[in-house]
Write the structure tokens for this entry.
Amino acid sequence: MSLVSKKAMQPPLALWARLIVVAGLTYVIVHLAGYILVAIIGQFGDTATALPTAITWWKTLEAMAVVTAVVVVSGQAVRRRVPRPPAPVAIDPWLSGLAHDAERINLSPSVARAVIRDLSLLYAIGRGISATIELDELLNRITELLQRHLRLREFAVLLLDDEGQYLQVKAAYGFPSNLRVQDMIFQMGEGVSGEVVRTGEQIYVPDVTLDQRYLSYRGELPAEGALLSLPLRYKKEILGVVNFGRKKCRSFSDSEIRLLALVANQISLAIANARLYSKTRELAVRDDLTGLYNRRHFLEVLQIEWKRAVRFHRGLAVLMLDVDHFKAFNDDFGHLHGDHVLREISALLRRNLREVDTLARFGGEEFIALLPDTDRDGAIHVGEKLRRMVELERFQGAQQAENHPMTVSIGISVYPDDALQMDDLIDHADIALYEAKDGGRNKTVCYPANGDASAHAVQHGTEPPAPERSFAEPEVDE
């Protein structure tokens, strides 16, 4: 018996009350009828023989009437509680077509297993790439996942540069030398990948030997097999290309192409999120005007480099630079041109420092540079180099200020010679900077200025010989 029929057969309290009332009324009616029958027999019939038989039939009829009434009432109640089937309704054409499609989707076990496998693959890839938001780590994760789950000879992710001029290989596997393929550049419209970016449409090459656009990654792969190149698109923006390759010709079926297109969509979304996160983080540590690091980020880097310098007994120098007479320059030529000059000076300083050095805008027209693995002589050499570069530069801008010369004053402080506490490193560089400005500007002064032979020599333009300066990356504190 179904769950509905069982529930229907269970009478509620209202039904029990109805049964009792009906049974009671039936008993009373039949009982009264029996009394009338007995009275008639006693009046006109043979009391000795007919009366016992009448009483027996009377009691029997009483019981049957009560039972019959109960059964009838119970049956009616149960019929009311059993749900009736809905009345047939007219099906509109769209529902009719949907029903027809549903009838046709009668998957065989093998097809059902393939669908489940594809969905499992998409889930695994989506879950894996959503676990990280750092772009480099994300690309490594994508490479690892696709290498594990897909039957491919090679795979590569190529991303457009910020200006959208060329494609650069950012992740790859399956090549004789993955390192040689990494950072390989293709121009817009060059090869299959460049054509995909130019048109925004996927390209499937069943046999690469028959397509002249296939460049075999500039000879890194044999020209054989099949290639599927899909655009990485986020909304309406093309981010790059993802390439899938197999050794056998015509080895990508239509269902696999559709599946890999879904994989490309997941990769596109993950890359877009990683780039957005990277831009947001950059905005938090960069100065809006110059693009240099801001003061907060500089202090965070200083803490790291200070601990490394103390642990490994390495030199650490701070250079504080201030643009001379900048307030007067702004008053004469305007703040817009002043901002332009600050951007040019920032770019000039950045070009003449190492990658391991940290350059930041400290406030207004003040800049600060952190030089790891640099002693006093090395810091003075760098400071003088930067001072001369600014002095010799002619900054372009507004018409009335073209070829206008600018100069900077520089104060230097070095660990461990000038400071044994991290805060003193900046304070002493600031003191040396004010000494340079008080001494006539356009000077490089190292703390303490008084009585220091090297500082005195620099102030009078006789720079000490250039010391050996480490251009290698500093050791990382594991």
Notes: The first strand starts at residue 154 and ends at 160.
